[in-house]
Amino acid sequence: MCVSAFSERAVLAQEPVVPIPQDIPFTVASTFGCAVLTGDGAVINTASLRPGQSTVAHGLGGVGLAAVLGARAAGAYPVIAVDPVPEKRERALQLGATHAYTPGEAVEAIHDLTSGGAELAVEAVGSPKVMAVCLTAVARGGTAVSVGLPALDRVCRSRR
User: Fold this and answer.
1) What does residue 114 show for φ and ψ, rounded to 5 degrees?
2) What does the alpha-carbon distance between residue 108 and residue 104 come to, in Å, rounded to a whole number?
3) Quick one: DSSP state of residue 122?
4) What is the residue range of the signal peptide feature (predicted)?
5) What is the C-alpha separation between 71 and 134, in angstroms, rounded?
6) pLDDT tens profile 25-51
């Protein structure tokens, strides 16, 4: 990611470091490091989602699914999940999304379901195209939050 995130060693300030007990598998600990904090944080902290507000998550990887979980925990309704992969949409429904759509059908369905657009749209893909879709899916006066990481070649292009 061009930030030494995969380094074996790093010099860090002690305040943000959280020791992980040795009995916690890395597959579980890894969600603590990024996905849950980013997706849930986008909904709860950045957008200050309130109960009853409509929310849509575009991109259903770890971060997008955490946004779905955060929206559900905050009492959002509806909680809409958008992804081209059927299994990811199904997982989002299992985790609390109330509706799930493919990208091609999402904007019209969101507008119909919410009477004009979602109050919060979270982009968890890292794509300018998907962010543009978020902006068309969000209601006037609503909030769009982008937390997706762009493709590595786009991020590092200027550094080469």
Assistant:
1) -110, 5
2) 9
3) E
4) none
5) 16
6) 988 777 666 788 899 999 999 999 999
